[in-house]
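Thread: "does anyone have the structure for this chain?"

Original post by V.I.:
We have the sequence but no experimental structure in hand. Need at least a predicted one for the grant figures.
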Amino acid sequence: MEAVTKVDGGAYPWGAKNVDTDVIIPAQWLKTISRSGLGKGAFESVRTEAGNIFDDPRYAGSPILIAGDNFGCGSSREHAAWALADMGVKAVIAPSFSDIFSGNAFKNGIVTVVLPQEAIDRLLDVAKDQPISVDLETMTVTTPFQDRFTFALDPFRRACLMEGLDEIGLTLARDQAITTYEAGVSAQRPWMIRERNDAGSAIEGAGRS
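Reply from O.Q.:
Generated one for you, tokens below.
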């Protein structure tokens, strides 16, 4: 996972409330297990509308999405986070998020920023023609007009995002501790290692027969 310390740039000033995961990525796109290419299907139903914000050249490639309450509600499909990441979104700002979506976004390196509606309204106005900055170092969202909004983020998630650590990365970061622990178990309980090896040999033998 790519480390995220700061997200600068344009923002989609959408503001829609109760956007569910089926709106983010329709069900017909769920047949794939690949994380790439889903950006083409992101907000497909919205993009059928003339003049929609996601096809507006002013916001093309924006790394930030500004939404309304309860963003990411509905199903638990991780494809929603994959689709956002594939279209280049690295941060979503909203008054509230579905817990499952927020977790999926975190696992895919997307920052979910919770701000009050007053701040969202201001950002929606600024984002029409100005960039926005989301800073995990200072835990602030700022604009060129000296607006400064502070937000909170779970310390563990913040650290993982800033260090670029997903679940695999977290495990690998503890490789030495795991190796030391296993060596200790081998020394203190050698019979466990023998039993594990015997079980592995039995499975391998069964596979050959």
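V.I.: this helps a lot. The mean pLDDT is 89.
O.Q.: and DSSP finds eight helices and eight strands in the chain.
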